## 1
Amino acid sequence: MWRSVSIAVLTVALATGVGTITVGQKNILASAQEKPATTEVKIDNFSFAPAALTVPVGTTITWTNRDDIPHTVVSTDDPKTFKSTVRDTDEKFSFTFSKAGTYPYYCSIHPKMTGKVIVQ
Amino acid sequence: MVGKLKDEILYDHNHDGIDRRGFLKCMAWAGTGALCVMSGGVLKSYSFSRLPELSSKDTLGELSFVQISDSHMGFNKPANPDVAGTLKAAVDKINALSAVPEFMLHTGDISHLSIPEEFDTVDQILKGAKPKDVFYVPGEHDVLNDDGKQFLERYGRGSKGAGWYSFDKKGAHFIGLVNVMNLKAGGLGTLGHEQLEWLEDDLKHLKHSTPIVVFAHIPLWSVYPEWGWGTEDSAQALAYLKKFGSVTVLNGHIHQVMQKVEGNVTFHTACSTAFPQPQPGKADSPGPMKVPAEQLKSVLGITDVNYVQGQHALAVVDSTLA
């Protein structure tokens, strides 16, 4: 999990020219503060926020469950492009979108919870 | 038909209306349940909050059993940091009944995260109950990460498909259905074609006078689709049940008691033994409702159902654990 977030930060840093490419935990953490907010999706009150997100190819999105109840993050396609295991309170799931396209997803435990990632 | 049911929800199971006190009273953090007594072909269901009002005559029938639900073992948030304790409290209530119920039904969400130790804990606690047989159907929390494999291994011996089955007890026909698998984005609970076909076939050989008890986790009626509290294809299942004179549907999932009668079918949802959830639409989301610790046991209960042959009424009464 932590490794994928770190890779995402480096990817964003490379793409935007922000930060220095120093392989050291301190710098990686520092640049985490600067990454665009759009790579984060919060799960609150049984909903994904933002529910729709448009990002460039290569972006890693991290979902954080802030509910008292576990959720999942699962793409609606078959076979699944991404499928988290169950994420309890404060647990995260990250996925890197390497191909352009539209990716609808949902919580497979509470299927009324839906979201969408558009990768350009 | 299902859409129409929503407007007919009855909240008043303690004769104290829909007020907060009444609502909390029938919630279930501390091990909810119902005592079901079948007498004369009709099932009566008593929430644990009503047990003190019952005479021994009320609990007599050819068959009595208990429904418990939504134990969520492993849940440890402020809404109830001791779900094991509240489940034990439910077991104590069951053991205090004057007549030992024949068996128990657990209508799902046994565990919170499908972790083996969570199931083990529930199994251990339920071993302390006087009724020795427990019939389970899975909740969505019991089939996380492995498409229900573990649930089937533990509880689904002899069942079909994802864990559905039926059995007969003292002239009544019991059907356990699974509506928590393969949930589709934006959708509700689902029974699926294979299970519906099995149900139609299962009912074929029965006399129309046979009392039927159907139990499943997510309500088989449209309680509040906006929160996913309903089952997409339940109308088909209910159509198969229309020809029977006495049908009782027992569900969990919504952590509160609701009842409605639709023709010959009585629907009943049970409290949770773990934590209460808000009334439909009365909160931003169906997340756990926090109540003060001193109220906790008063909002949890179990449901007893009595089956009384010869009459045509069904009453559900919930009992709190206080």
## 2
Amino acid sequence: MAETPPRDFLRTFLAVATVVFLACVALLLYLVVGPLESVLSYLFRNPAQLLVDPLFKTIVFPGLVYAGLVAYLAIWGERKFAAKVQNRVGPLYAGGLPGGILQNVADLLKILFKEVIIPRDTDKPIFILAPLFAFVIGALPVVLVPYSPTYVILDFPLGVLLFFVFTSFYPLVLLLAGWSSNNKFSFIGSLRALYQQASYEVPLFLAALAPVMLTGSFRLIDIGDAQGKVWFVLVAPISAIVFFTALLAELEKFPFDIPEADSELVAGWLTEYSGVPYLLYQFAAYIKMVAYAGLFVVLFLGGWNGFAFLPGEWWMVIKVALVVLVIISTRAFFPRIRIDQLLNVGWTKLIPLALLSIAILVGLQLLGVLALVR
Amino acid sequence: MDYLIPIAILAFTSLMAIMALESRSLVYGAISLGGFFLGLSLFFFYLDLLYLAIFQLLVYVGAVSVLILFAVMVIGEPAKKVPTPRYGGLGFLGGLLVALAAVFIALFLLFSFLNLAADTLFQIMLYVSPVVVLLAFVILFIGEPRQRSGYRFKAFGILGASLVFAGFIGVISYLGTVPSYEGSVTFNLVDLADSLLDQYGLLILVLGLLLAAAAFGAVALAKKEEEEQ
């Protein structure tokens, strides 16, 4: 039997490869273009309704793009602000735009091309899945925060409680991440983070009870609407302070930056993570910050109520930006406290203060003062 | 298509329950227990019992499973691995079927107590579950003698648990209807508090006593172990 000449083989191979390639392209076009066209036609079927469409709300305004943008600006602002306060320059050159605002894009590209290192003795399924869960659970609370009665993705009758449900899942993920790394330092770091987050959930709940009591509803839109006359930060200032302090601890921001103390420990429970999983954790942390800032504004700072020359959503955006600025500015102003001090403050100071605030509110209600602010 | 949702939740919950019992790694078992709690709360969401669902998530998934996971991780896996028998296919199938049947029966009882039984799915469940139970017991008894006894105990345990669950639902339905959200936007907290104190006062008292007894029992057990050491 004569051997097939190599040239014929090459020709056949090329022909088959071309056909397969064209088939793949056709399949891709069929898979991508059809759904894309249907999404576009769905979006543009009624241009007047485009801005309040559920899809638009989920993807663009109170949803992913907006939250991502605020998180991006918060990361840049944190570096720049802390640098200015400490008389450094901070991000400067990247991108040629003022203030090195494209520095994060450069960092993102760098981190995307890094190798994802999975150490040998880790528990692989949990080690890989934990960052994904962290990202999803960190981003979920954004869904619940209303930016006005129209701009809310999920209007849930027990919104405050559901928000705390999502945030109470976070310690679970964190514990799994620390344990699956199979590293003493990661595990101890995750235990410290667990102590912090679990013990500061209690004052957070108790402080969030004050607006719920004042409104008589767990629905976040009702709570925002009830502050047309007086913001609840003026009615229940102790609760607002307790809530903000507990919020800083839940977000692991200064002065409660203990689990991931970047100048003392390596990175706490994040030690073994690198590349994209590390990115997912950091992004989850900042998205969570946007959600918590929105919740604080809705519960205590009047929500979308403001002067009439701007629509309510804009007031909400401005207030959230200010709260985020205050949260990130703590990095420049406060030292880090120790873990025993942290737990001491949480259990012996914040919880009694939150209970005291609730007692004061009950007293005011009995005296009939609260009827004036409604 | 509407039947797919409860069946999917049922499959998820049963799978998680079986994994929580049968998993060789304690940590994976604890995670599966968390998934099982999550599946239960999905059932409550499906039944529009929002308040119950939220507290199931907040207390059980958010706190209890974290506590269990924490304890398991801190204590660590036993250094000397207990040799677990490899289960045969028939025994496993029998256990799975009994678990499914038990959940079917419990669900059917729940839905009939809530007067939702007009649904065809639950009539199908009613006819299917005795057949499944029979099949499961036949499989269990013809299985290999070395394996089947453990599964028999487990099967009776699951059936007993589902009967206790059904009895609990019966007590609730005897005392009054389950507080429901019923699709309205407003959720009246005052009504909920009233019903908890008036209508379900007895039930809460009994549950409180049960919990107190459990707490005393736990303390007694811990003290006994300390004395032994």
